[in-house]
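Hi L.,

You mentioned the student needs an example of a multi-chain input paired with its predicted structure. This one should do, with 227 residues in total across all chains.
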Amino acid sequence: QLHLQESGPGLVKPSETLSLICTVSGGSITSNTSFWGWIRQPPGKGLEWIGTVNYGGATYYNRSLGSRVTISIDTSKIQFSLKLTSVTAADTAIYYCARRMTGPGGWFDSWGRGILVTVSS
Amino acid sequence: IQLTQSPSSLSASVGDRVTITCRASQGTNTYLAWYQQKPGQAPKLLIYAASTLQSGVPSRFSGSGSGTDFTLTISSLQAEDFATYYCQQLGSYPLTFGGGTKVEIK
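Structure written out for the whole complex:
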């Protein structure tokens, strides 16, 4: 069964870069039936899609985050990562990594447990 | 595409039939999913392609709709179903979620 695990610092200072890694196990990160994505949830609030990457490195981002976000994949390490630059308190959230099935309307069927990242000095 | 869920919260009893609606600002075909989230947990996929039940999800959950209007129905609410439910459209970027519906115990 597919398992995803987020890792990274739980505390980031304002204006710095948030960096998270998602490690995938129990399945292939190079499968052409899967995209890999990040979703976040501010404490007590709703869900926001951040972006998605496929095994070939093609990316799709939420334009609301402008040019601050970069998602990349390292197939040799069976990981994909998220970088969010110039963070503010508004970026404080639980960050989830998840698998998205490919094809029209592909859904997110497997999620990590999430990692809380707090932006504070 | 903006998704509006209603109600934002509801109180119900075990055994009740519960219906949650999700309205899209533009048509999204049947590219819609429903998720259940319990406190401290990641969202869990319940329904995809508007009406297809994810493997392992109890049959009391069902989804319907296409275009702009969608519905999640729980035919007989169980104690473990008290949670927050989100719809998500997957037809166009940016992918978006509804604001959530919190189902509480009456």
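You could point out the following to them. The first strand of chain A starts at residue 3 and ends at 7. Chain A is about 0% helix and 50% strand.

Best wishes,
N.
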